[in-house]
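Our preliminary data section would be incomplete without showing what the modeling component actually yields. Below, a chain of 407 amino acids is followed by its predicted structure, encoded as tokens that our downstream tools consume directly.
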Amino acid sequence: MSKAVDSGRFHVFVFEGGSRSGKTYGIIQWIIIYALTHTDKQTRIVCCRKKGTWLASTVWNDFNVILNETGIINYCKINKTLKTIQLYTTSIEFIGLDDTQKLHGLTTDIFWINEAIEASTNDFDQLEQRTSRFAILDYNPSAEEHWIYDRVCKRPDCYFDHSTMLGNPFLPENSKRKILSYEPTEENIANGTADERKWKIYGLGLRAKLEGLVFPEYELVDAIPESIDKRWYCIDFGYSSDPTAIAEVAYNKATNSLYVKEHCYEAGLLSKDIISIMHGLQKKRLLKIISESADPRLVKEMQQAGLPVFPVRKYSGSIEAGIDFMRGVKIKITSDSLNAKKEFDTYTFQQAPDGHFLNIPVDDANHIIDGVRYVCLEELMAKNTKPVDLKKVANAIGRGGKPLPAR
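Predicted structure:
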């Protein structure tokens, strides 16, 4: 990228590629190197994504990780509240495209839209007309048609780069194994992990639309309304390759709306870590906890720690029944629930050899979705739910509380 920038021929740089191909890290490294080697002039770089909450948990975090790993953070002035990094004479700012107040009248030297497939042509136009030097866009091509392909990639002043995870030597083995499992090989087909569309998008970085989505529509909201009292926590346990996913679920019967707020999505958590997280959540809002039933030992440990955990009661056809119920409600995801959004964006039905979709979801990237399904099965679909003395539980963790309203 440095040679292309120095040539002065390009005013927009497009990086298209599959998941974990190194696009984001490569751009961050270029920005850092630029700041270290251009201390003779002031430069303002604005890093954007469609929503500020998504930016904070991705690019902002990646920037700080790289600065820490390289020791360069010692030469930076970082404002965590304003989300700014000053590295010598280069100012790096992180702004959500939804923050119209900050973007209004903004002028910059360079701007970068991360996951630009989410942005609108107006977002790009508004930034480009206020930029003195050039723009950077990166994305997974999860759409067959997009304004970037037609309005940007075809420009004579556009530098285009395509990459895949196969060219990333630093890719963790677990991530590589997961993406390779999508390739439609005989072995993957036999194992039930093959997915040609996901392989094209995330493996090869090709332009292909995800079809057969289980949840083709959902709405992003700022928060779960406080007026909704039907609430639960849900947990889907993981450890090494899969994350432990914890979310808050709320149901508004009047509008038939199911709300989802992600609280935790992390691999490698021990029992004590999960218990600590749940105690923290219970102190903020005392709720019944619905978990998976595959790890009775962990469930028992959580119960002995004073947590109102109840494993879902599974039965033949429960997966399909839970999914059918969820497809019949209006799903609303809080905008800070980045991993929940990713799951709903990529959760598909299995596809038969002749191309038609089966009524069976692919068991992949569905950890929060599974947790939400547990709540639906146990609390919204079951005739008899289990009463919980939450006041007793609250006292056990050192806090008074009120019991949930009667179901």
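The longest helix spans residues 23-37. Residues 402-407 have pLDDT under 50 and may be disordered. Preliminary results of this kind motivate Aim 1 of the renewal.
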